[in-house]
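Quick one, tokens below. Sequence please?
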């Protein structure tokens, strides 16, 4: 599975962005999908996941502000990010794994990673 994220860019604090991640090579209907991010000088951080059964999970720092969604027909996953703060500045990576059941917030669990897209929030 190859993943390609898009939609990153520069936004002012308080603004919104929507990231997209298109998967090629496989239909995503039986795949979990998710997002991680890495800020400069920080560890990789779980952002959100959407299991193949419909369950969503969010990282503590983004819960209530970010929404993950998926369109299996288009093999695309989205991350709507609202009320952005400077602390959301990071490279965002979309991930996926063939899995029917619960997802994981652990990076090692995810099998496929996209190359990342930069999100910069100006304060």
């Amino acid at each position: 599975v190859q993943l390609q994220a898009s939609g990153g860019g520069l936004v002012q604090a308080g603004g919104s962005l929507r990231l997209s991640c298109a998967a090629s090579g496989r239909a995503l209907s039986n795949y979990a999908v998710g997002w991680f991010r890495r800020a400069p000088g920080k560890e990789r951080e779980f952002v959100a996941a959407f299991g193949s059964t419909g369950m969503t999970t969010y990282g503590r720092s983004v819960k209530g502000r970010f929404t993950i969604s998926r369109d299996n027909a288009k093999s695309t996953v989205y991350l709507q990010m609202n009320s952005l703060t400077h602390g959301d500045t990071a490279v965002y990576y979309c991930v996926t794994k063939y899995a029917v059941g619960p997802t994981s917030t652990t990076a090692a669990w995810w099998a496929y990673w996209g190359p990342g897209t930069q999100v910069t929030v100006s304060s």
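The two ends are 36 Å apart (CA to CA). The mean pLDDT is 95.
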